[in-house]
Design a protein that fits this description.
Blueprint (H helix, E strand, L loop, with lengths): L1 E2 L13 H10 L11 E2 L9 H14 L5 H12 L2
Antiparallel strand pairs: 1-2
Helix pairs in contact: 2-3
Length: about 80
């Protein structure tokens, strides 16, 4: 997702991404509070929430610039098994 105001991207894993973006927009998430409103720009459908959370940690720990291409690369490499 990204902030509609500053176009700042944000990556998160959730079993219900549409509910999760609502929570972000309500200000219940410390890391994104006062930085929205947020909008979903892409949803990757992974079967396993643990795998989604693992990919999220890998990307956030990589310190690389968050892009749709970067996330797609991690998701595709994960599905290659």
């Amino acid at each position: 997702m990204r902030s509609k105001n500053c176009r700042r991207p944000y990556l998160g894993a959730s079993s219900d991404p549409y509910n999760r973006v609502t929570e972000h927009n309500l200000g219940t998430t410390k890391s994104t509070k006062n930085k929205g409103p947020w909008e979903i720009i892409k949803v990757w459908g992974l079967v396993d929430i643990q795998e989604a959370e693992r990919i999220e940690r890998l990307i956030k720990n990589s310190k690389l610039k968050l892009t749709e291409e970067l996330v797609s690369m991690y998701v595709e490499s994960s599905s290659d098994g």
